[in-house]
Structure formats: C-alpha cells, structure tokens
Specification:
- Its EC number is 5.3.1.9.
- The protein contains 22 helices and 13 strands.
- The protein has about 550 residues and is an alpha/beta fold.
- A hairpin with a 2-residue loop joins strand 3 and strand 4.
- The longest helix is centred in the C-terminal third of the chain and has 22 residues, at about 475-495.
C-alpha cells in the first residue's frame, strides 16, 4: 500500500463512505443545505449541495488535503518551483495572466516583463490585421485566419473562440486544423482565398509532425494559387521557440511569437497560442479573458481550503473516484457556445492525471484520473442521460449554465434552465417504486402490468452533481471557468502525489508513429515489428485488403 492509502484519513473516508445517507434524506433534514454548500467566486456560483456529502465528509476531505500538503504545493506552483519533476520544469501558466506589477521568478529571472512584452506584440499584430493595415500579397486585407496546431495548441484556441462567438470581429472568420488526415485541411482550403488568408502555425519546435505537415500543405496550396515564396511572410506567422526553422520556412522574424518551457500545451491558450482568439475577439476582450483567469488564480492561491472553489470540486471528484469506484465524470453545458468545453476539459484532466506512479516512481494503488466526457445541454437528455439516471455506474456530473442568454428568444432560455435544474433534481431524488406505481394508478394497465412497468420506472437517485452558474458568458467569466478546472485538476494530482504536468504516454505514441512511418516509406524493414503491425503495414502498402 502507498502512504496515501495507509493514512488514517484515507481509512476514515473509506469507512465513512459506507454510511452517508441518501441525498433525499440530507435535503429533507436540512432546509439550509444549499446555503451551506454553495459558494461564489470570480463571477461564478458553485452549488455543490447535490453531492453525497455531509459536514463530516467535507471535514475528512479537507483533512486529506491538508495531510497531503496541498496548500504548500499550491504555493510551490505559484512561486515557480520545479514541480514538473520528470522534465525539471516550473509550471507557470498562471504567469501568463499575471498583472504587470507582479514579479514571478523562473530559473532566476523575472518572467513577467517578457509575458507583458508578448502581449504588447500581440496587441500590435492584432491591430494591424483588424484595421486592414496588414495586407496580403495582392494588397487585399485579411478576411480568414487558419490556425494550425495540435493538442493544446489547437483545442484551447478553438474551444475558446467558439465559446466567445458573440464577441467576434464580423470582418474575420477563423478555421482550425489539427488532424493530419489530408481531408481536414483540404476541406478548409476549399473555402479560402489565398489573397486574403493568414495562417498561424503553432509548434514549439516548428517540427511537430502533424502541424508541420499541415503547414507545408498550406504553403504548397498558397504557392500553387499564385503566391511566391517571397509572399509567404505576408500570409504566414508562427508561435514557436525555433526561430531559425520558422525563418527558413519563409516567416518574417518579426512575426514569430514565443513559447516557453514552463507552459504546457494544454495550459497555453493564455499565451501567444491564443493569437487566433485575440484576432477574433480583439485584445481588450482577450485581456478580459486573462483577467478572469487571474481572479480565479488569486482565489485559488488565497482562499481557505473550506471556501476554495477548485479545492472543493477537486476533492468531491476524488471522493467518488477513490471511494465509490466512479470511473468517469460528465460535463454538461447548457449553453450552445460552450458545447466544445467538455472536450477541452477532457484533454486538460486526462492528459494531466492519467498516471499510474507517484512522484517517486511507486505504483499507485488507487484510481487516478477519471474518463472526462460530456456534451451539450438538452441534447444529451434524449441520449446518454438514460445511463446517468438508471445505469449501474456512478457518474458524477457538472452542469454549467449562464443565467442570461446572448440570444434571448421567447421562452428558449427559460426552457433551457428548467431542463438544467430539473436534471440535477432528478439525479438527486430519483423515483421510488411507490412513486412510480402511484403515477400509473389511473392508467388502463392491469395490476400486474402496473407492478412491472413501475419496476422499470424506478430510478435510485442519489446521483451526485455540481451546478456552475454565471450571470452571462463573457471573456472574463470564461477565463475564470477554465482556470477553475485547471486548478481542480491540480488539486487531485497533488493529493494523488502524481506529476500532472508531463505526458509520456503521448510521447510514446509519437515516437512509435515515426518509426512506423519510416517502415511504410520502405526506409526500414517492414517486417521487424510484431505480427499485427507488420501485417497492417504490408496491407497499407498494397492499398487494399
């Protein structure tokens, strides 16, 4: 057993988990439960009253956090200590949304001035494009942005841009490319005019296979459509650490934006990786996004554990994963603009906490990162919500909704809200056999049929959920929301004593993929791998089954 599972607090939580009353009872015996178990911070309200938790539960979870030195670990991250131990790096995405007055030291240097300089450079670039000052090679203004990246360099900008669609510059459109499948970029290029298109290539090394391949294809398309190599600088910019490769490609050194080792890809949207966001919504709104995230950073760094929104959410998720065998966690967004958020949180959490050894290399004997999944609003109610209500798996849920819509039409938002709140109530209280039978009392069914149908309509309830509300979806509230989930992820990793900031599982697949690519191209022996891989490579070479 690990030290974590041997601890008295862990053992107490394990025993306590078997004695928590049904939530129906918890609400029936405490009319003030919502007031006691809700919290507001940074423009967000968290209702966590619909959880299988009592005051004793929370006390034990907070004790587990304290015993795991969570507060010290939070301070270490904000102080720029080397908490990504396997890669010997600080973890300072929070510095990207710091204020100019702050001083944050990494590797002996204050990094805030460089962050602010990059924001200023972004401001100038965004202004030149949106004002029409930046011209393409034929003298026309830019109308379309193509953001080429993968992982966090793709997903963060795409999801945030999608979420903030009401704030877009009406003169610009943006297209996101990540998949190396040629169909992805081909379909995008069909929509574009090379004279008015600007490509943003995001790759720290300027050599990420998928990103480089898509960027080379974009350049080939641009040249085939009439552009010259000397015109590339007017239509391609880069976010990279490899200035030499970018300039060799044809990008002007003045149009290369920096990336830093102390920012992981899934935490990078706050940096120049967010350039597509800034172009679409303007720098004032981009800075508001950073401000919202910074406010959540301040809350996370200073609020007591018992009043700390990321801490509470992280502990409750750990509670179900480690003591109720919950293998997944669903995120349900009741706002069309937030429909991509579950996929973003999926990468954030699963790439961070999908680990099986502690910081010192000991195999864990407890569940770490759950499967994060989800979808949009009422759509899921006619699909997978069936599993949430009556399936045998325990699946904690987060419901996210703004109180005000950007598109207030008739009763649409009232119906949306009623669905959101109704689902959390149904998950909590369920339906007993007697209640189901009573509903069928006036039906034409026989007594036997009523008994049978009632059995099928029983729902156990006691299914946990959090509800997150905001007044309105704005750049600031979105920034706070994303930072909340970043820190929630950190809380769990800190207690599990794992490194939430490396991703060796991702690296292995990349390396083996490059090896297979060489064998497909006949540069290496195609029969030197396992029997399955050899057969698949040979079938691919033949081009038919």
């Amino acid at each position: 057993m690990t030290l974590l599972t041997q601890s008295s607090t862990w053992q107490a939580l394990s025993a306590h988990s078997k004695n928590v009353p049904h939530m129906r009872e918890l609400f029936a015996t405490d009319a003030a439960r919502f007031n006691k178990m809700s919290l507001s911070a940074c423009g967000l309200l968290l209702d966590y009253s619909k959880n299988r938790a009592t005051a004793e539960t929370l006390d034990l979870l907070f004790a587990l956090a304290s015993n795991s030195q969570l507060e010290a670990k939070i301070k270490a991250m904000f102080a720029g200590e080397i908490i990504n131990t396997t890669e010997k790096r600080a973890v300072l995405h929070t510095a990207l949304r710091s204020t100019a007055e702050q001083s944050i030291i990494a590797e002996g240097q204050d990094i805030v001035p460089e962050v602010q300089q990059t924001l200023d450079k972004m401001q100038g670039f965004v202004s030149s494009v949106t004002s029409g000052q930046w011209k393409g090679y034929t003298g026309k203004a830019i109308t379309d942005i193509v953001s080429i990246g993968i992982g966090g360099s793709f997903l963060g900008p795409k999801i945030v841009s999608q979420a903030l669609r009401p704030y877009w510059n009406p003169e610009l459109n943006c297209h996101f490319v990540a998949n190396v499948d040629g169909t992805s970029i081909s379909e995008k290029l069909k929509l574009l005019d090379p004279e008015t298109t600007l490509f943003i290539m995001s790759s720290k090394s300027f050599g990420t296979q998928e990103t480089l391949t898509n960027t080379l294809t974009a350049r080939d398309w641009f040249l085939a459509k009439g552009g010259l190599q000397s015109d590339v600088a007017k239509h391609f910019v880069a976010v990279t650490s490899n200035v030499a490769k970018a300039t060799d490609f044809g990008i002007d050194a003045n149009n290369i934006f920096p990336m830093w080792d102390w920012v992981g890809g899934r935490y990078s949207l706050w940096s120049a990786i967010g350039l597509p966001i800034a172009l679409l919504i303007g720098m004032d709104n981009f800075r508001a996004l950073l401000t919202g995230a910074h406010q959540m950073d301040e809350h996370f760094a200073t609020a007591p554990l018992t009043e700390n929104m990321p801490v509470i959410m992280g502990l409750l998720s750990l509670w179900y994963g480690n003591f109720f065998n919950a293998q997944s966690h669903v995120v349900l967004t009741y706002d069309h603009y937030l429909r991509g958020l579950p996929a973003y949180f999926q990468q954030l959490d699963m790439e961070s906490n999908g680990k099986s050894v502690t910081l010192n290399g000991t195999d864990v004997d407890y569940s770490t990162g759950p499967v994060i999944w989800g979808g949009e609003g009422t759509n899921g109610q006619h699909a997978y919500h069936q599993l949430l209500h009556q399936g045998t798996a325990l699946i904690p849920a987060d419901f996210i909704m703004p109180l005000q819509s950007h598109n207030p039409i008739g009763e649409h938002h009232d119906q949306l809200a009623s669905n959101c709140f109704g689902q959390t109530q149904a998950l909590m209280q369920g339906r007993t056999f007697d209640e189901a039978l009573a509903e069928l009392a006036n039906s034409a069914l026989s007594a036997t049929e009523k008994q049978l149908i009632a059995q099928h309509k029983v729902m156990p309830g006691n299914k946990p959920s959090n509800t997150l509300l905001m007044d309105k979806l704005t750049p600031s509230t979105l920034g706070a929301l994303i930072a909340l989930y970043e820190h929630r992820t950190f809380v769990q990793g800190a207690i599990w004593d794992i490194n939430s900031f490396d991703q060796w599982g991702v690296e292995l697949g990349k390396n083996l993929g490059n090896d297979v690519l060489a064998r497909i191209g006949a540069e290496q022996d195609s029969d030197a791998l396992d029997a399955s891989s050899n057969a698949l490579i040979n079938l691919y070479r033949q081009g038919k089954i």
